[in-house]
Amino acid sequence: MSALLEVRGLAKQFGALRALDGIDLDAAQGRLTGLIGPNGAGKSTAFGCISGALKPSAGSVLWRGRRIDGLPYHRVAGLGIARTYQVVQPFGDMTVREATTVGALLHHHRVAAAERKADEVLELVGLAHRANVPGHALTIADKKRLEVARALATDPQLLLLDEVMAGLTPSEAQDAVALLRRILASGVTIVMVEHVMEVLMAVADHVVVIAAGKTIFAGTAADAVRDPGVIDAYLGTAA
Ligand SMILES: Nc1ncnc2c1ncn2[C@@H]1O[C@H](COP(=O)(O)OP(=O)(O)OP(=O)(O)O)[C@@H](O)[C@H]1O
Ligand SMILES: [Mg+2]
User: Looking at the predicted structure, is the pLDDT value of residue 238 above 70?
Assistant: First the structure.
């Protein structure tokens, strides 16, 4: 199991608040790693620090063995790391296809090639039939799909998904699990923040649990749900 991404002792201070207090997290090539923990544990902050949106206060982020912590967002994106946002981004009047093409322009500098890439990922996520609809007119489930499409359009090797399944109906969640399997089959590594344990049991090879800014567990989802520390810090309160 070679780790594509290795996070060690990652910390982030916001003024007086220590949002991350030294987390460790590994993502193995071609696998799906689940990142869970209570509200405010620091999951989204961790994604911010890994993706270059936030500058870590301490610790290291290694990508294929090289330090990338502190690099600006566009440099990290250029290396092949893409993220979605927990709060879906405003799309204005852009159509689904246009919003996705913006992502594709990272690596495809000709518009026609970027549009072809956009069409390909819209097909993959099941949004091809909505391509000419303005992004703001989509349902929540489709807005989440569009977030994933925009990230995938950048041709990532690592995809950081922040609660892309929140608010989905059970049948939409099933579709989303099928989509995750297709993305993994295409060779993309995934780290996913997700609160529904059944979803993680179904797709995660590995689960990392953080609480109050610290990693408290790393192992299989099946072992996580039996771990007293995890139950105490997260599952007990979630149930
Ligand atoms: N930009 C910011 N400035 C100040 N404090 C922040 C900022 N972003 C996050 N925080 C704080 O850092 C802590 C961790 O927040 P974060 O959003 O990373 O948690 P989370 O695990 O993603 O939670 P949730 O499950 O609710 O999404 C929280 O106390 C939050 O209020
Ligand atoms: Mg969050």
Answer: no
Nearest to 148 by CA among 184, 110, 122, 112: 122
Rounded to the nearest angstrom, the distance between the alpha carbon of 44 and the centre of ligand 2 is 4
Q: How far apart are CA 209 and CA 18, in angstroms?
A: 17
Of 40, 87, 64, 65, which is closest to residue 214 (Cα–Cα)? Answer: 40
Ligand 1 center to 46 CA (angstroms): 9
Residue 167 phi, psi (nearest 5): 80, 5
- Give me the pLDDT at residue 162, please: 95
- Residues within 5 A (CB) of ion ligand 2: 43-44, 86
Shortest-distance Cα residue to atom 9 of ligand 1: 45
CATH architecture of the domain 1-80+189-239 equals 3-Layer(aba) Sandwich (3.40)
Nearest-atom number in ligand 1 for the CA of 38 is 25
Cα 124 from Cα 229, distance rounded (Å): 38
Q: Which atom of ligand 1 is nearest to the CA of 42?
A: 18
Kindly report, residue by residue over 155-214, the tens digit of the pLDDT: 999 999 999 888 888 888 888 899 999 999 999 999 999 988 888 989 998 999 999 999
Distance from Cα 84 to the centre of ligand 2, integer Å: 11
* Element containing residue 192 per DSSP (H, E): strand 189-193
Residue nearest to atom 5 of ligand 1 (CA): 14
pLDDT digit string, tens, across residues 88-130: 777 788 999 999 999 999 888 899 999 999 999 999 999 999 9
pTM above 0.85, yes or no: yes
Taking the centre of ligand 2 as the mean of its atom positions, its distance from the CA of residue 166, in whole angstroms, is 11
